[in-house]
Amino acid sequence: MFEQFTPDSETVKERLEEQTTLFFSIVKWVALATAIGAIVGLSTTFFLSLLDRGVVWSHQPYYYLALPLCFVFCTWLVKTFAPQSQGHGTEKVIEAVHKRSGRIDWKVIPIKLMATVLTISSGGSVGKEGPSGQIGAGLASFFSDLLKLSDRDRKKLVICGISAGFAGIFGTPISGAIFGLEVLYVGAVMYDVMLPSFISGIVAYQTCSSLGIEYFHSGGFFVPDFNRSFYLLLLLGGVFFGSCSFLFIELNRFIEKRIGLFKWNRYALNFAGGCLLAALAYLLGTRYLGLGLETIDGILIGTDSARWQDFLVKMLFTVITLSFGGSGGVVTPTFFIGVTAGAVFGQYFGLPPQTFAAIGMVSLLSGAANTPIAASIMGMELFGSEIAPYAAISCVIAYLMTGHRSLFPSQILRQKKDPSFHADLDVQIQDSEVQLKKKERYLVYRWWKIWRYRDRS
Q1: What is the pLDDT of residues 283-315, one digit of tens each?
Q2: Where are the domains of the chain?
Q3: Which of 138, 194, 326, 398 could bridge 367 with an S-S bond, Cβ 3.0-4.6 Å?
Q4: Fold (topology level) of 229-401
Q5: 1 band by pLDDT with thresholds 50, 70 and 90
Q6: To 10 degrees, what angle do helices 129-147 and 9-55 make?
Q7: What is the DSSP string of 153-196?
Q8: What's phi and psi for 250, nearest 5 deg?
């Protein structure tokens, strides 16, 4: 009777083999992730120090007049030496992971760094996170070549590079790690890369902090007592932020397509785009140029106030910069759009502008990048636990309201956002055909007819 409970010797051996294999895998990835986190932390610190020196140029009057030449030079630089560094960084890394097992040309690292610093210093409306993530991914790919890692391990290490770059730029190690896992797929998270991603993000953040990089973290936001009115306005805010994300994505797609119709010489088009942006800056002011961190920080701490047109103009400036040859990321402009849109929403409904600016900031990231988990955690890391539950609700609604589209069209669609749609899964989101099911389309049509009839009556 006792013998039937005695484990089989072969079973015990297999279990020990499993545990031993997992232990050595953990040791391996702790070492690799720590190394890449430290390397990316150093590169991020260097990148930020160069950017700080370049931004000094923006204190000169009419500095934005250099934009036409900047766009031409950046386009030539990228086209000649590293075509993979084109655009806003994160998109190209996602494409590399899905199509080339994470292989990134090492020349992307210096070219992306140089082009981004030039663009932001000249007033281009772009961010610093995409280049940092792409530089981090490029370093991880180069490191993989030196160690002769397999394609699978290369992909994992490149994802760690994205996470480390994001964490080092914004000082958010947990959401930075989750962002690197979540941004590759819509509706899925890569759990097998979670441990090295967390380690690389934390190490990169600590490396940057120890080298003197300072981050904006704020807390103590006034949150109204939870009641029916506040709850409904919070839900409405999520819908509004999702609509802003939708508008930003569609504006970016619209202008890119229209530019493709021009038969001009590419450099002439770059020059014309720079002239257009400089003219808009002369007419509307320099508030919407560059990173816009002064405006973001000012609204969040209450020393500045948002204007109703801020988030719309920032969208336009960012799309023009990226479409006409500028180099940089889209997350920092997304933060600007979210902060200003949230502050305007709060002012209109008599709610605390700073609170809704913070909620809007992470909600726009959630909707535009399809990263609701990373955005929700970022809300807690940057603004404290009191605001986190409300930010999470708004982030998820914004994610759903954006629909099956993204600022990163190379994302793989793994899950539909609602069962009412037909959608091609496991393909890039730009190639997936999404259609409303026949029954749901009929119900929407009936609702629309009833609504129009009420308006006329």
Answers
A1: 998 999 999 899 999 999 888 899 999 999 999
A2: 25-210, 229-401, 419-456
A3: 398
A4: Clc chloride channel (1.10.3080)
A5: very low
A6: 130
A7: HHHHHHHHHHHHHHHHHHT-HHHHHHHHHHTTEES---GGGHHH
A8: -70, -35
Tokens standing for residue 168: 């080092």
**Could you identify the residue written with the tokens 């932020």?**
241
| Count of C-beta atoms within a 10 Å radius of residue 452 | 10
pLDDT tens digits along 412-439? 988 888 787 777 888 888 877 777 665 5
Structure tokens at 338: 């979210």
Give me the pLDDT at residue 433, please: 77
For CA atoms 337, 397, 354, 208, give the dihedral sign.
negative
Fold that domain 25-210 belongs to in CATH: Clc chloride channel (1.10.3080)
What contacts 147, CB < 8 A, 6 or more positions away? none
**What is the pLDDT, as a whole number, of residue 401?**
93
Q: Is 302 left (phi over 0), alpha (psi -120 to 50) or beta?
A: left
Integer distance in angstroms from the first to the last C-alpha of the chain? Answer: 84
Question: What is the pTM for the complete model shown?
Answer: 0.91
How far is Cα 170 from Cα 157, in angstroms, rounded to an integer? 20
405 HSE (CA, 13 A, CB side): 17
